[in-house]
């Protein structure tokens, strides 16, 4: 889990991502930067996360390479779950059959 911006330990000491930068700027979640996790069954993962109360930032988005879902981690950072399409996973294109 990532440290929460402004987070402190039990003594009030900021740690990790909770520390200010040298110019005084504090880290903040949001924006479009994110990391992506590959999943085999996006629908099942979405249902599991919704049941657990995880805030989703999008519905399932379908594109040429597969399907994705954007959600927030406990600190509000953007995370992408990605399920490649069968052609994307095989490394072929629709015009090129799998070997």
Any idea what the CATH superfamily of one domain is called? 2,3-Dihydroxybiphenyl 1,2-Dioxygenase, domain 1
- Tell me the series of helices and strands, N- to C-terminal: EHEEEH
**Averaging pLDDT over every residue, what do you get?**
76
Number of helices: 2
Major sheet: size, sense and barrel closure?
A: 4 strands, mixed
Q: If strands are numbered along the chain, what order do they take across the biggest sheet? A: 1-4-3-2
**Stretches with pLDDT under 50, minimum 5 residues:** none
By CATH reckoning, the class of one domain would read Alpha Beta
Question: What CATH architecture of one domain do you see?
Answer: Roll
As a percent range, the share of helical residues equals 10-25%
CATH topology of one domain: 2,3-Dihydroxybiphenyl 1,2-Dioxygenase, domain 1
**What's the shape?**
elongated
User: Structural class, from helix and strand content?
Assistant: alpha+beta
Rg of Cα set? 18 Å
Instruction: Give the N-to-C terminal Cα separation.
Output: 40 Å
Organism: Paeniglutamicibacter sulfureus
Protein name: Catechol 2,3-dioxygenase-like lactoylglutathione lyase family enzyme
InterPro entries: Glyas_Bleomycin-R_OHBP_Dase, VOC_core
